[in-house]
Each structure stands twice: as structure tokens, then as C-alpha cells.
Amino acid sequence: MSFSRTLFAHSNEFNWIGDKHSSRFYERTRPDEPAGRVSCGEIRTQSTISTTRPQLNHTHTHTNPNGKKSAKMLLAEEPATLIRHTIDNFNIHPDKQAVARINESLATLQQARELRLREAENALKKLSRQLNTMASQHAELTSQHSSTAHASEIARLDTTKFRTAKAASDAEMEAERLAQQAADLSVRLQELEIQGLDGSADDQARRRDPVDDEVLLRLKVYRSLGIEIERDGRDGGGGEFTRAVVRNDRKGDVHVVNMDKKFSKFFYANYFWQTL
Question: Where is the signal peptide (predicted)?
Fold first, then answer.
């Protein structure tokens, strides 16, 4: 059915409303539908609607070949004119602007999507290159690695480690032996210094002062404990004992103590005992 036939086929069921402030063309007046309702919908426009009521002729009834009666609307104006006026009353500019904004937003989103896609592709290519490089390096290292050579190298390093540890232990034992020998020689030297350069041991024993015997006995006791007492070798020192070397063979420690007169003999004896 054409637009004009659709719009005016049932004009006898509508009353025309013709003021310029109304956007309704027709109002239904059939008793079976509520008043004020338009069957084809309400058309709202921003322009002024023509208030001229279309000139509608009377409806003529004729009989179809089937024997049924049909009504045909005779219009005073051309259907094309009515359609043009109807189209002019539609305001589609806001819809066109909305569609343009939507298209612009879609274009922006498409550009952003393409940009992110390019960035992801670049990152993927970079990671692929890194993967290929690491894979080639791994393959090269794997091809160069030999399990037999690795085992022999580990065995050689273990042997070298054990030999080095044994040599260090032997050197430590030799150092302790030499330290003990040096201590014995130092004791012998002090004994010879006490005896003097002239005279034999028998003469020195006959001429020995009881005080010297006491000093020698004390030195021997100290040496047996691992303590060596040294005299002050400077001029004017008076030959007093000013330095002590304490050796602990169990711990392998050596302590050098400078003896000062401001500390008591009990302090030094207690310190030596704690060190031993």
C-alpha cells in the first residue's frame, strides 16, 4: 500500500487538528479507541505545521469483481505534495549530527585499536627475536658441553682441592714445630746470656747468685706454660721484663702483652691464665 493510501485510507476515523502549536495531524475519534491517540504515532517537529486541512472528497464505494465492496479516497491535492509536506515536517538534523558523532567516535576507536595492535605486534616481534637469540645460544652451549669432559674436570678440581688442603695442613704443622723450636732456642739463648761469655757452666754454677736461680726457675715455669718473658732492650731500661708472648698450642693463638707498671701482677697473672 502506498504512503498516501496508508496515511489517508481511514480518514473518516480521524478529526483534523489544525493549530500551529500542535504536532499532531489527526486525532482518533473511533469509539473503540481512546481519544487523543494517533494510530500512526505522534510526530514532533521544530517547524510550524501547516494548519490548512486537506480537502478530502467524499468516499465512493464500488464493487470488486469478487463481489466485495471497497472504499477509494479521492484527494483534493496530489499525493506527492502531501508526501513532500510531510517529509518537510520531519527534523532529522539532530539525528544526522548524532550519527556523525558516532561515526567519529568509531573512527577514533578504530585508530586507537590499530595503534595498540601495532604496539603489540612490535613487542611480539622483539620478544621473538630475543627468543631466537637465546635459543641459538642455548643450542651452542649444549653442543659445546661434554659430560665426560665435565666429569674429568670435576675430578681434577677435587684432587687439586684435597692436595691444597693437605699442603695447608702440613704447612700449619710445620709452622707450629718451627715456633716450638724457636721458643726452645730462645730459652737456650737466654740461658747463655745469663751464663755470660766467660767461664764454664760449672764456674757459673758456683758463682751463681740465688736471685738469678730464682729468675731462671720462674722463666722455666713460664716457658712450660707457653709464656715467654722478654726484657726491655732499650738503654736505661734496667733489665726489667716489659713484654710477654703467650702461646696457646691447643687453639693455635699467640698473644703479645706489653707489661706496664700501672697494672698489678695479679691482673697480669689472671689475664695470662684466662688466655691459656
Answer: none
Contacts of range 85-88, beta carbons closer than 8 Å, 24 or more positions apart: 85/50, 86/3, 86/7, 88/47
**CA torsion through residues 87, 91, 92, 93, sign:** positive
Length of the chain (residues) = 276
Q: What is the residue type of 251? A: K
Q: Yes or no: say if 212 and 218 are a contact pair by the CB < 8 Å rule.
A: no
**Model-level pTM greater than 0.70?**
no
Kindly report which listed range (140-144, 181-185, 209-213, 243-247) carries the lowest average pLDDT score.
Answer: 209-213
Q: What is the DSSP letter of 65?
A: T
Question: Running DSSP on this structure, what letter comes out for residue 145?
Answer: -
Which residues lie below 8 Å from residue 258, measured CB to CB, with a gap of 6+? 242, 243
Give buried/exposed letters for 15-40 (b at 16+ CB in 10 A, else e). Answer: eebeeeeeebbbebeeeeeeeeeeee
Identify the CATH assignment for 165-275 out of 3.30.160.430, 3.40.50.10710, 3.30.1360.140, 3.40.20.10: 3.30.160.430
In whole angstroms, how large is the CA radius of gyration of the chain? 63
Residue 47 has pLDDT above 50, yes or no: no
The C-alpha angle with vertex 6 and arms to 5 and 7, in degrees rounded to 5, equals 95
